[in-house]
Amino acid sequence: MPRRPFGEAPLRDGLRQGAGLAALVLLCTLAAAAATLALPAALGRAFDAVLSGEDATGPVVECGLLLGAAALFTALDALATAALGARTTARLRTRTLRHVLAAGPRAAERLGPGDLVARLVGNAAQAGAAPATAVALAAGALLPAGALVALVLTDWTTAVAFAVGMPLLALLLRLFVRASGDSSERYLAAQGLIAGRLVEAVRGARTVAAAGTRDREAARILGPLPELRRQGLRMWRVQGRSTAQAATLLPLLQLSVLAVAGLRVAAGELSVGGLFAAWRYAVLATGIGAFVGQLNALVRARRAADRLQEVLDLPTPHHGPSQLPAGTGRLEFRGAVVRHAGRTVLDVPVLRLPGGSVTAVVGRSGSGKSSLAALAGRLEDPSAGSVLLDGVPLPELTHTALRTAVTQAFARPELVGATVHDTIALGVRDPGEARVVQAAREACAHGFVRRLPAGYATPCPSAPLSGGERQRVGLARAFTRPGRLLILDDALSGLDSATAAQVGEVLFHPSPSHARLVVAHRPETAARADRVVWLEDGRVRAVGPHAELWRDPAYREVFGGGE
Ligand SMILES: Nc1ncnc2c1ncn2[C@@H]1O[C@H](COP(=O)(O)OP(=O)(O)OP(=O)(O)O)[C@@H](O)[C@H]1O
Q1: Whose Cα sits closest to atom 20 in ligand 1?
Q2: Is the whole-model pTM more than 0.80?
Q3: Which CATH code for domain 13-312?
Q4: pLDDT tens digits, residue range 468-509?
Q5: Topology versus the membrane, per the UniProt entry (predicted)?
């Protein structure tokens, strides 16, 4: 399969956005190279002056100035390179993170949270170094090239002696890039796999402890370690071999230049200073060997950029330009189908749910309740068909119109804000203390939030919340943002019956202005809804009032677990 030209785009963007700093790196590298190139000729002149007994002050001062200039520009170059790397990394991270958030839950599902974090943290930093390395590499090529020209100008026969070994050196570098690129790619992939498994294990630490499978889990996480080691060693071997080959070839090239220059001095066609300059230029021209390290860094950076590009290639949902007309949250599913890996998990040919009322969605585990809720809130787009809110297909709505109209709460909400207050107020600009407390009261969360070490100001990591309490914080967050459609996907499952009934007072309170879609596991929750959508194997088996459906033993079986 032909390899896609991945990774080019992030690197090109990095170079374009950091153009000023990149220019500074280029300038400093060129200036340092120019000073370094001028030095051997000046040294040669100083030598000749000393040997001939002339005043050598001028050439010696010249040598000092050139040395100082080379040191200054090298230091500036190091500073600009570090700044360019840091800025490019920050931009790459921001851009990729924005894309991940825009792509929604599917992004984490496809690549896994651990792998995503590894790409955003480690790979972004490696890719961020690429523009500076590329500029340094391009500018660095000028030093050997300039040295070669200077060698021709000093004595063309020495340049011919040098040129004879050049094709071998070029071949060496080419082989290195190929082998190094392959091992870098495999190394980064193994790293991502370990990171992914590690995050899974940390999230499932309780399950692992309860199952007593710590050792097995550790072995599973470290499974890709031999591959990581193999590829790491291979990278070092490739670099070591190339460096050794270069270390053998380069002195030979320098020696051949020195030999030819020596013959020319013996023939009286070159001065001793000229011989010295020719030898120094030969050393600078063979500086191409230093490329191996830089080239390695660039190859690794490009493979890291490939991995960022894979993230940037994840599809993001398109949002249209439409606003919603006045309405009360009427939902309509038209031939909506959800497929995962070729399997149809939900198929809803026609389903109309009136606005201003409460709909409960019930069904056995795996019947498609969460998939229906995800379609209604556009956390997922149907593989075929469409979903309309108050007559407008969801993809036609602007992002703001959609997220203002639809509010969601989940079974296992993440506490995303810095404090409990911020978590409840998430997504609402300046909600005010009273609104947050009111929402927490409605979600039966006010009592336990008040008892936290710093109340609403408690940082989330220091808020020891039970599963049911987290759910109530999630509900409070949903209640802070009243839209025209409220979707609760299993968001009451962790609440005891009394608390669930209390929250139900708010949830099921007749309100003609907005609709509610509630994934329900309890018969009493379904009984309070205006209608029930009963799902079975991804299809709507029946729609009707709970009392009516309850006459069917198969419907009663859905609640057979006695929740
Ligand atoms: N991202 C996914 N990839 C593959 N299959 C999926 C994915 N999401 C859901 N499914 C499958 O779709 C089916 C319906 O899942 P869904 O979560 O909608 O069921 P549910 O009725 O909400 O179940 P539960 O009550 O257990 O939460 C299941 O068989 C599930 O395995």
Answers
A1: 366
A2: no
A3: 1.20.1560.10
A4: 899 999 999 999 988 899 999 988 888 888 888 888 888 888
A5: Multi-pass membrane protein
